[in-house]
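Data deposition worksheet. Section B asks for the primary sequence of the deposited chain exactly as it was used as input, without tags or linkers unless they were present during the calculation. Section C holds the resulting structure in token form. Section D is free text for depositor observations; keep each observation to a single sentence. Incomplete worksheets are returned to the depositor.
Section A, Depositor: J.P.
Section B:
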Amino acid sequence: MLPINKKNGPCDPISSNCVVWQGPDLDCVDICNGDSISSVIAGLCETLILLQSSSGSGGGSHSINLSTINQTTLSGGPATTTNELIQLIIDNINSGGNSGSGGKIWDCTDTLDCTLAIPSCYDSSSGVSLVNPGTLSVIITDLMNHHCSSNHQQAAMVSSIQSINDQVIQLKKIPTGDPNPTLQSVCVDTVNTNPQPLANLVNKIEVDYCKTKSNLGTTEQVVAALSKQPINPMPLDSAVFGGGTFVPSIPNNPTSIAESFNACWRLINDLRAAVTTLQTSSGNNGILKRMVDINTFYAVGASCGQAISNAVTGGDYCVDLWNSSGINLDTNVRAYNQPSGEATYELATGTWHAVCPGTTDVAQYLGGYSGTKSPPFWSARTVGCTGSGGGSEG
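Section C:
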């Protein structure tokens, strides 16, 4: 191998016989590693000539032997030369040959009807029922549905992540505040008037709470104590009827407010029971009513005339009278000048009492310490004193 033009150098005049082929052995063209480039080029050229001049009769060692090729599946044959065979194959590919469902062997329908094995790890969520093996058409449809669903989910996820990211950014902008805030105490610590760390105040609050809890009792104890009040209330303007509800004894030396409440309720109940016992044994409930109402008053006198005179005068002479029925001059019950059914307050025997202003009823009280012990406790009521047994004094 020599350079074409020595004058255009610099080129060294090296013969192709001196250049060695360092590629692999090529059995198809009878070339080996170490042959000269001249031998390699010559072998390639000889093979090319044989391929171009070969025929169907199988003329040379490198020609295609057409008799060994099965052409029964090819329409339009048989081919007698290599070129005819190649052309015949091309014609059959274009025309579809003896197979295929359409006009072309590579028809789209035939391709989509091909089946593929479906991996067990693939889970269909598109609503298409996949049969294993599945057709390429169904598999592609399912994959596209999955892809669309994934895109929607990804878009929603991106939007959600962006929203959370925006919230995080806003949270980072919020000031964290004083790492050790202070506060001035109002009632927990009145000695130290300067602002002090919250931890100190919380500690003092906890100490006070523990003291209060110790003195007051636990929440459960306070609730239990408050709930132990007698079930029958006792209004101050009505009689005591008893109805005690406590069986255990009154606790001695209570150590908390809760226990004190408990003791108070039990003591109140015991006192009510004692009052009830006294009422039962004495026959007097101790609760009286004003005669008639709060606007009715009576004047007292040693005689009928004096009582009427005092009633006409009025003022301090007119006072309230009390009995257990509230009926005006009720002959069936005793009368008192105080709202208490004690003998000390019962009206004096033989005294006269006129309803103020002295123009209506007047009667003499027959009860009292030295008077009658059973009804009637009043004489007959009259408007004046004539014929009343009291004379017409006054």
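Section D:
The first helix runs from residue 37 to 53.
Residues 200 and 262 are 36 Å apart (CA to CA).
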